[in-house]
Amino acid sequence: MSEVAAELKEIGDKIANLTLKQAKELSDYLKDEYGIEPSAGGGVMMVAGGDAGGGAAAAVEQTEFDVVMTSFGDKKLDVVKEVKNITGASLMEAKKLVEGLPAKIKEKASKEDAEKIKVALEKAGAAVELK
């Protein structure tokens, strides 16, 4: 076994003694804060490294979008009806969704579906963002 600095050994011991819940929280924190995710093997963590290649690392194209309504404009009833059609919710549920801005109308939609929903909502008078 190679020589390990005392502070690294202390960190390693703390990690090894985490509960499953604590390990999950640590994993989520490292992913959200630093872009570090477990590798496919699950044992070693991989760092989503910086762009040392001067642009060599291409950005991954987003394939799933959330459709978020930020305003219902001056045609609230038309927007509520459109939200009802899109979500399949009752009229009352659609009204609550529209009034609870910003409102996530659709999650993880394909780019094509997200664009169609955005166009339909904007035609009804709403302001929409794709995230």
Task: Report on this structure.
With 131 residues, this protein is of the alpha+beta class. It has two domains: 6-47, no CATH class; 64-130, Ribosomal protein L7/L12, C-terminal domain/Adaptor protein ClpS (Ribosomal Protein L30, Chain: A, 2-Layer Sandwich). Helix content is 47%, strand content 20%. The chain has five helices and five strands, in the order H-H-E-E-E-H-H-E-H-E. It has helices at 6-16, 20-34, 76-87, 91-99, 111-124, and strands at residues 36-38, 45-47, 64-71, 103-110, 127-130. The strands form two sheets. A three-stranded antiparallel sheet has the order 4-3-5. Helix 3 (76-87) crosses helix 4 (91-99). The longest helix has 15 residues, at 20-34. The N and C termini lie far apart (48 Å).
